[in-house]
Amino acid sequence: DSYLTFITHSDNRAGDTIRTHFPNGFPTSTLVHDGWKPQLNTEAKYHQSCLSHLQRTLKYLNERYPNSQWGVDFIKLLYAALELKRGMSSEEYKLDFTPRNQIIEQFEKLLATPPNIDDKELYTFYKRIGREKEFI
After folding, report:
1. Element (H, E) at 45
2. What whole-number distance in Å separates Cα of residue 111 and Cα of residue 36?
3. Model confidence over 10-22: pLDDT tens digits?
4. What tens digit of pLDDT does each residue of 26-39 get?
């Protein structure tokens, strides 16, 4: 496997910029991104949400809404998933694996219990995660 990072300079992040610099998209690659709509619409074999961006956003939201448990639970779940991934063998990663399945179940439960709609930014983030759940 080869791992490459493609970086380009532009004065904006619009879809035209992506199409200009990467006209074929990434049909054989995983595109890791921060959820910007042009990135989501870019051709790729797989999409993955950038976990660092998610963690940074959750840190902000947890500080902004200290009485909400939803963001706290989600960031704990992300850390648990990362810790599990670090300890998994490549065989376990490709097969049905109970600890991973448990994290997926917890993620589904979290998505089934939204935060308070009055916590506007957190609720907006929750809706985004629901739309992009297959990228996490």
Report:
1. strand 44-49
2. 21
3. 888 788 888 888 8
4. 899 888 888 788 88
